[in-house]
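fyi for ur records
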Amino acid sequence: MQFLESILLALSSLRANKLRSILTLIGVIIGVMTVIAVVSIIAGMNRYVVDKISALGSTTFVIDRIGVVTSEEEFFEALKRKKLTMEDMEAVRENCAFCYQVGGRVVTVRKVKYKNQYLSDVYIAGATANWPELISGIDLESGRSPTDFDEDHRRQVALIGWEIADKLFFGLDPLDKEIRIGGRRFKIVGMAEKRGTFLGQSQDNFVIIPITTFHKIYGTRRSVDIFVKAQDLESMREAQDQARMILRLRRKVPQDKPDDFSIMTAETFMDLYRNFTSTAFLVMIGVSSIALVVGGIVIMNIMLVSVTERTREIGVRKAVGARRRHILWQFLVEAVTLSLVGGIIGILIGVLIAKLVSVTTPLPSAVEWWSVVAGLLIASSVGIFFGIYPAMKAARLNPIEALRYE
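which gave:
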């Protein structure tokens, strides 16, 4: 009964002093809101990124010239490396016993035109015929991909992304029609299914042509990205080691020097993403900690004011038999109740912000149950930590002096 009475007393105090209550709880609200909103957005992004990055495949790795760089110094150092060539790709294909499939890709950005309509900054990929099989992110809606025959004869055929078909053909069937890429005609032989966006970037704004056709038109000066698929997860490490050794020998890399190329797996990209999100978590912890400390100090101040205002009440309670622990419990429960109300409001606002972000931006969100529990625990902890001093002060009041207090 005393526990319930303390909660009802705290709630009635909130209702009686609405403006003061809002000002009291705003720090806790901001702190918990930040935790919920950031955790929800990052959790949603985690699921989204895992789904998209997994398109590379758990048994596929990519060998490229630059790799993942995290600083300007690393980038400029990587630019000094020799370009990977078709001969490098063929060497891996012919000599890597653990490599189940090997393909290549080289990219550029060009304008794509159909009659009077055109799209700028379209991703043009020159790829080997087996490249779409090496990644699991491109599925055909209609037609086919460029074949070995197209590659051998340098045919000007193209597989287009969904966005190209949607914006240039306006619902018409694009198969067998011709588009112009940099003034050259390409016959459309296939269209990919819609893939959507990834972190705000369209994944459907692409054209895939045979890699030999690409080299015929744009030259061979661009570095080739080599895609390698192992037979299974058990042979993944052996395939990487063997491919690495083949390329080091071909490129005459001294034994005491690091690779002059980079090998990347889906896990490589996930590690990079985790490093990015860990920074966001640190910022979140900093912002929420400051807000919670400020909110806790305000709650402590308000509880001290409440102790002063209710000094005579405390004296009466002690006079009729209330013990120190009863007074301590009463004010501590009130402080926790105040903080929990702020926490609940913060959770609701945080969830609302996360949902608004997912609706109005490409960033997804997912409210995790543990983040809600964490928000309530944080709010409770703030109430206990900053409410203990006012509660102890109230419990230690001398009943005689309290009764005489005006």
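DSSP finds 14 helices and twelve strands in the chain. thats all i got for now
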